[in-house]
Amino acid sequence: MKSEKIVSKAIDFRRSIRHYDPDLEIDEEIVKKCVKQAVLAPNSSNLQLWQFYHIIDNKIIDELSKSCFNQPAARTCKQLVVFVVRKDLWKKRANANADFIKRTFLSDKDNSKRRNKMAINYYKKLIPAIYSDFFGVFGFIKYLIAFFTGIFRPIYRQVRKSDLRIVAHKSCALAAENFMVSMAAYGYDTCPMEGFDSLRTKRILKLPNSSEINMIISCGKRSEKGVYGPRFRIPFDQIYFRK
C-alpha cells in the first residue's frame, strides 16, 4: 500500500507547469535517473524505438526555447528532455532483442528451446515482415492481405507505414509519462510540449531526417504562477464504461 500511495501522490502532484521558479535549481543526476525510469516503459514488441536527449546546456536550451515559440514553459525551465522516435532503427533493435534471447535464455529443456526459437523467429522474421517497406508499396500490399484475411479471422491490421509511425509514437509517449511521474515523485515539475518547430529542433540536436520528435518536456520547480488554473477533467462517468 505504501508504494501505491507514493505513485498516487506523484500522479496527483504532476501538473503541466507553464512557469518555473528561476531561483530553484534541479539536480541533473535525478533527471537522468528519471530518464532511466522512462526506459522501463512498456513498448511495442520491446523494440524501444526511441532516444532521449537530456539538455542541460543553457545555450541549447535557449535555442530550443525559440524552437518552442518561446512559450513560458520552455523559456523559464532549467533543463529539457527531448523524446525522439527512431522507427528507422527497427532492424538494429530487433537484432538486439534476438541476441539477448540467445544469450540469456539458453536451456536444455525442450519447451524452453522451442519457446526461445519462436521468440527469435519473431524478431528475425515477423518484425522484418511488418516493418520492411519500399515507398509505402509493401505496406499497401500488407494492408490488402490483412484486410482480406481479416474477413475470415482476427489479424493484426496496423501494417502500413503510417500505422507503424503511430505505434512508435505511442510507445515513446508511454516512456514520457514514466518520466514525468518519476520526476513528480522527486518533487520536480515538468511540462510536455507539442508546440514546437520539429525541423528546427532536429537541426539544433543534429538529428537524422528519419527521426521524429515525439515531445519536448521542460523541467524545473514551479513558481507561484506555474499552474495556470485548477485541474479540469471530463466527468468520470462520461469516459469510463464497464462491460
**Count of discrete alpha- or pi-helical segments spanning 4 or more residues:** 9
Instruction: Give the DSSP E fraction (strand runs of 2 or more residues).
Output: 5-15%
C-alpha Rg (nearest Å): 21 Å
Order of helices and strands: HHEHHEHHHHEHE
N-to-C CA distance: 28 Å
Count of β-strands: 4
Q: Which blocks of ≥5 consecutive residues have pLDDT under 50?
A: none
Helix content: 40-55%
Cross-sheet strand order for the largest sheet: 1-2-4-3
Largest sheet: 4 strands, antiparallel
Mean pLDDT: 92
The secondary-structure class comes to alpha+beta
Which overall shape is indicated by the principal axes computed on the Cα atoms? globular
Considering the chains and any ligands shown, give keywords for the structure.
globular; four-stranded antiparallel sheet; 4 strands; 49% helix; alpha+beta; 9 helices; 243 residues
What would your notes on this structure say?
By secondary structure, the protein is of the alpha+beta class. 49% of the residues lie in helices and 11% in strands. It has helices at residues 2-13, 28-39, 58-67, 72-75, 90-104, 110-131, 137-149, 161-185, 198-204; strands at 50-55, 79-85, 189-193, 212-220. A four-stranded antiparallel beta sheet has the order 1-2-4-3, sandwiched between helices. 28% of the residues are buried. The mean pLDDT is 92.
